[in-house]
Amino acid sequence: MYVLPLTQSAISLMSSTNINLDQSQLQVLQSQLTSGQNISQPSDNPSGVVAVMGVSAQEIRFTQYQTNAQNGLVVAQMANGTLNDAVSVLQSARTTLLQAGNSSITPSSATGLIASLQSDYNTLLGMANTAYMGNAIFAGTSGSKTAYDSSGNYVGSGPSPSTTVAPGFSAPTVVTAPFGQSGTPTNIFSVLSQAISDLKSGNYSKVYQGDLQSFDNAFNQVTAAAATQGEYVQELQFMQNQAIQSLQNVQAQYGNLQNINYPKLTTEYSQQLSNYQIALQVVSQSVQPTLAKYI
């Protein structure tokens, strides 16, 4: 079979096409080396763009989870510290109530016990109304400025606040009404108010026999609330660490997709540049006029 020889114009056209391809590839490699990224625009790698967008969305989500856990942890640790301090105050108050059982108690000594219990009452009320960013942390989801009024009545409402720290999972941050609900026998403020009233009326035996038992029941509730709050802190710390680990994994995936391999890309660039220079030389020689052209 006879094959037509390639004409000079055909050779030039093919060479020019190859040069354009080499030049285009060089531009892509230069862009990657300059930006440090595999993908600068969607046309570079359409399927890669989809993968990068998916990983970027995950990074945004896990960054938010980490932020949520951190913010929740700030309030949870504040509540935990407050309740632990409250337990210490209540231990002091219990010691004061025990002194009411002393057979040598007098109205004068009772006055000192009353002052001590009133001081503990005021301290506990201040703790119960601990606020973060203007809102009482123990007032549930009510957004109230206080959780307990001056009489010790609970004025908050709603469940314990929570924050989303993982896909489909919200962790509670602060216990609700840890010092007891209004009108219940375990409201620590009602118990202390009753003990103070009985001391003022000289009913010392009731303080030691009745009020002390009521106090212990209320004390146990605060202690249980403190324990639960400690669990909230531990859970938030765990979820924060999980979010950080997940975020690091996602960022590593993003890096694998987007960050270039400098040694490899530099070698590719050098090879492509060499091919381009050779192609230019071949074209320059192929288009040189020959003597036959003028005969």
TrEMBL record:
Pfam families reported for this sequence: Flagellin_N
Every Flagellin N-terminal domain range: 11-141
Keyword Cytoplasm on entry: no
Alphabetical list of InterPro entries matching this protein: Flagellin (IPR001492), Flagellin_N (IPR001029)
Domain of life (superkingdom): Bacteria
Single GO MF descriptor: structural molecule activity
Keyword field: Cell projection, Cilium, Flagellum
A cellular component annotation (GO) from this entry: bacterial-type flagellum
Cleavable signal peptide: none
Name by which UniProt lists this protein: Flagellar hook-associated protein 3 FlgL
Organism: Ferrithrix thermotolerans DSM 19514
Lineage of producing organism: Bacteria, Bacillati, Actinomycetota, Acidimicrobiia, Acidimicrobiales
